[in-house]
Amino acid sequence: DTKQQALFIIFGGTGDLAKRKLYPSLFELYKKGFLRDNFAVIGTARRPWTDEYFQEVVREAVTAEHESEEDVANFAQHFYYQSHNVNDTEHYVTLRKLAQQLDQKYHIGGNRLFYLAMSPRFFGTIAKHLKSQHIVTDNGYNRLIIEKPFGHDLTSAKELNNAIGSYFTEKSVFRIDHYLGKEMIQNIAAVRFGNNLFRSLWNNRYIDNIQITLSEALGVEERAGYYETAGALRDMVQNHILQIVSLLTMNMPASYTESDIRREKLDALKALQVYTPEQVKNNFVRAQYTGTNELKGYRQEEKIADDSRTETFVAGKLFVNNENFAGVPIYIRTGKRLAKKTTRIDIVFKDIPKNIFGSAKLGKNILTIIVEPKGEIYLQMNVKQIGQDFGLQVQKMDLLQVKDNKVQIPEAYEKLILDALRGNATNFTHWEEVAYSWKFVDAIRSTWDQQQDSLAEYASGSMGPKVADDLLVRDGHKWVFTV
Ligand code: BG6
Question: What positions constitute the catalytic site (predicted)?
Answer without folding.
Answer: 240 (proton acceptor)
